[in-house]
Predict the 3D structure of the following.
Amino acid sequence: APSLFKGVLTGVLRVARESIFSGLNNVDVYSILTPYFATSFGFTQAEVQALAASRGQEALLGELRRWYDGYRFSGHTIYNPWSVLNYLSKPDAGFKPYWVFTSSEDVLRALVLEKGHAVAPDFETLLAGGSVRKDVTEHVVLRDVDRSPEAMWSLLLLSGYLTARQVLQDDDHTWADLVIPNAEVRRAFRRSVVSWTDGTVGRATLDDLTAAMLAGREEDFADILSDVVATTLSYHDTAGQRPERVYQAFLLGMLVSLEASHELRSERESGYGRYDLMVLPRRPANPGVVLELKTLRKRRGETVEQALDSALAQVRERDYAAELRSRGARPILQYGVVFDGKQVWVKKA
């Protein structure tokens, strides 16, 4: 046709600079950050109930909600339509991450793990079911994703890996309380971390590392961690102003393999301060670990032994083990970990 009266373009990102195209004018953009058509991005609660009833699956509405719900667009509860339809077409196959199967985990690895050392505490908060407040925009330019946190969080939101529980506007910014929406996407996050660490470290090495840490074998833990850091982290990773954040993200990624038996937490309140990393048992009478990370301050004449003792003194004086005691962890293992570039030292309390 020589002309088009009206058309619809759909996708994750809006058409950048659409106003400069003379053949594409009078464009209205409706994203998940706007209230218009909010219920058109997926299935509403009523639609899922009707679909489940038509297939005789009303008893599984709770599991449908846990796996495929969780998206909030302008106050509306929205389910992932692809996953809901796939499950209801073959319920005997059980609940699976159908939507995640259609996408690549390379985006998560690149954004959150390989280039996202600075987001370690936020990433841990999300995996634990919490929310993080971030400045987001629908005007995402892909070339900015590597260097712009705003672009990174916005892309994760617009692509469905995160959802906004609340959106707040001020004069110049849009702030969103971001969460992982459901079990399907949470599994993708965890699998991305595990596959990344498997590829960079190796499963056998990870198993040896975590086993030594949980058993209190200080020397083995130190030796394996030293080898992993020496072969995996680059000098540029650890040469910034906040190298502790790099090591924290790196350790967090490796310890995700313990998720079945332990909860991982970072930079949370316990006792009288904030610890760096904690491994909490899901059941009492299993080992729990707190790790305090320090960078060796050689310019101040600090020795390795002084740095290790300082880390353990902080753990003891601020009673970081309080949360482990309340969980019934046995034994409680407290480690000071000191880094200097690609060198690592560990000391157990």
Observations:
- The longest helix spans residues 183-200.
- Residues 235-239, 269-273 have pLDDT under 50 and may be disordered.
- The two ends are 77 Å apart (CA to CA).
